[in-house]
Amino acid sequence: MINRFPGVVTDMAESPDKRSRSGNKWVAITIHHTDIGGRNPDDVDEALWRKLFKGVTSWLATADDTYASAHFHIGRFGECVQLVDPETHVAFHAGVSSFWHPIMRKFVSGWNEYSIGIELLGDGNRGIYSESQYQKCAELCAQLMKRYPEINPICINGHEVVAPGRKVDPGRYYDWQKFFAYLYKNLLA
What we know:
The protein is built from 4 helices and 10 strands, in the order βββαββββββαβαα. It is of the alpha/beta class. It has a single domain (11-188), classed as 3-Layer(aba) Sandwich (Lysozyme-like).
């Protein structure tokens, strides 16, 4: 696996849960949360955040019966691990999903084939994400948009949008306005 974004990605941990790309263009980015075991984010200290990040990264990089993966995982302090190479592979992050395909101009299912998956450490229904996470996520998304120009900002969304009623991440506390402010700042840099 090649680190496609060395200025953004701080580590690599290859996930076996992936499939070779079939030729579909990346047109979207789906943002997820990893959950933190029901903990209150305000009660988690730095040492535990770092331990949780390593544990979730390890889980995402291990073959198991959940068959879940993502292209990237972003930790509380801006750590960013590439798990699946978006140049060559599809990650299994969206599950049963559908969304409006801007190029085909219709709803399509199987959104994994069209969307790059980013996991954020935390639970956006229990607490807020860190500034470092917003900054890193926006920086990564800007780099992805430059590499894959078919990705339009209107197609950067949460898991809850592509799997409504089934998923709730990145959660109600995810500040989309803050994310897009950072994204546009990175795109204009």
